[in-house]
Amino acid sequence: MSPSVPLQEMIRAIRSARTQCEERGVIQRECAAIRAQFRQSDNGGRSHNLAKLLYVHMLGYPAHFGQMECVRMIASPRYSEKRVGYLGAMMLLDEKQDASLLITNSIKNDLSHSNQYVQSLALCTLACMGSAEMCRDLAPEIDRLLRASNSYIKKKAALCAVHIVRKVHDLGELFAPAARSLLTEKNHGVLHGAVVLITELCERNPETLERFRKNVPDLVQIMKGLVISGYSPEHDVAGISDPFLQVRILRLLRILGRNNEAASDAMNDLLAQVATNTDSTKTVGNAVLYETVLTVLDIKSESGLRVLAVNILGRFLLNNDRNIRYIAMISLQKIVGTDHNAVQRHRGTIVDCLKDQDASVKRRALDLSLALVSASNIRSMMKELLLFLSSCPLELRSQAASGIFNAAERYAPSQRWHIDTILHVLTTAGGDVRDETVPNLIQLITNASELHCYTVHKLYRALLTDISQQSLVQVACWCIGEYGDLLLRGECQETEAVQVSEDDVLDALETVLQSHMSSPATRGFALTATMKLSTRITDNVDRIRSIVSIYGSCIDVELQQRAVEYNALFKKYDHMRAAVLERMPVIEKNSPGHTNGESTGEPVKDIQPAKVKQGGPLLPQQPANQVCDLLDLLGGSEEPLQPSPAVAGTAPGLPANTISQAGGDLLDLLGGLEPAPLAPAPAMPVYEKDGVTLTLSCEKQSDSGLTVTLTASNSTDSDISSFTLQAAVPKSVQLHMKAPSGDSLPARGAAKVTQMVVLNNPNKVNLKMRVRISYNSQGSAFQDTVQIDSFPGLSAAGH
Where is each GAE domain found (predicted)? Predict the structure, then answer.
């Protein structure tokens, strides 16, 4: 290929290359020829060569050697060379390169050129790659051009001023008077540039925002002219007069009317006119309507206007375009807390969106449907949500189940309805529920004493039907172990009576123990339930003893430990078995604000729901530390418990010394453990912003080891998803972050997320930690950082 081939032939040669290697050869030969011609002092084809080099740059090949040629061509008096030179500068130069400073003087000269097209080239280049230094030097020239008589130049200068304001915030005051004067222009291009510039100025300076609020009537007048104007071929797009300018004006009005009564009142009539007169059958009209809705909802508008805006979003939900339905649901999600009744009118349409084929639309419809649940519609909404849960995609099941649990806990009309709803979810999506679901349901069942018989019968039937849902099987095993005597009686007023024999119950539990689908935790529940039945039945105790003894050599350590302890109860401590395995007491919440198995930090009264395991109750009047070890030995509560003061000093029928001696022997099963009561770690709030609270508690593990627990909660009215915590410590400190308890924070503190951080500080340096908090709320991503310089209770430990 000849070095002087035209651009079109070079492009043709590159495209006809059959391999990448052949293409690189063509590019290298052409670049070598371009370099050689750049070195010639008298080169008549400079613009031709630079144009070819720019095409090479667009293909991703290095073209940096053409930067100085761009600088020389910009200084050329010929327009054809200036045009290619400025184009090359915009593509090959940026503000980080020193060569960009060499064109500052050329741009300044061209801004004063008599030819408007040369001025336009300089304005476009400065707006594209102007550095902060260039912007400061050339800002007075831009301000001068904003006051020029040529509309073409004023339009370009306004957009260039936007770039300058973004680069150097302090220069905004320089352009404010000129920007205000541009609002009187008739040219739509100039008006568009002026509105964009004023928007940028108002977003960056509150004082400028206050001054421009006086121009709201001018903006309203311009917008009215666009709405009521007739057909204009120059500006018409699908029957809408200049929708681009309308959208920009509406965005500016939204900024000016936010938190200001007077400005909002001045634009209410206009917004109502736009909302009622804009054609919604075309995408262009929907774009204008959507911006109108956002403006109405963001300013201090009248209640009737807000209802009109919500109704427009309701019409969007019926649109065939999924993108329009998606943005409608995002907007409704943001206002459901403030305009709940208005959004409720479109509940049926929103629920229908749950059947949409698009996964993103389904997700938004689910979020909005859960937000619409209230005490008045809990039954009807729950039917729709449960129907959706049975057919929803796998990636939405966890979110749907969590939302149903929160709604049922908050608005349940009765305990029986609450239990039935949770059992329905566990039957449908038991493998996708959160870890705290099992203890929460156990707590609910324990407190509903009049429903024990009904619940155990229903769970027994569910267990016979399906043992693949682990959460459901765990709750069923727990209930059978606790209330197996009610199941065997066969007398239940709430449900159809079913005669169940002792062998039937034990067969069901053995099936769970032997199933390959059962997790180790589920087998633990089933083994403990089997053991508890030894005090509730009479004819099959030997069979239970045989089942328990089999698992004494189980490969799973936890299951083996339980079996060994239960065997010890049968052999050495059989006289205590009835007392140890008696029915669990009512599980009380720590405080009124305690929900979903999360502690609020107050002293434990009975057993924390988040720590419930199938184990024996407290021995009467045992010392507190022995009670802790006993419950730990039998797989009970992991928290230190307070012995009940209402229980007498001895168990019925047993002397006090017998209980004391037997309890001591039982506590010595694992080799005479020396119990030491654990004091709760002090908690300290370290972050509180936008309804998200983060607390920190510490526990010293060794001289240099430390366990930090971060607990996050959400007090807002909307759920938070994708919640993550990241931590950084000094280099000499070793950090290990364990898996968090979850990644979602339900609204109003319904649940919390805990994150364990293990620190090792061998050099005893001053301990500091920086935590980054990231989450999504109402469709927006948030991120913040908090510095932690002190750790509670560790000042004396040298950390």
Answer: 679-792
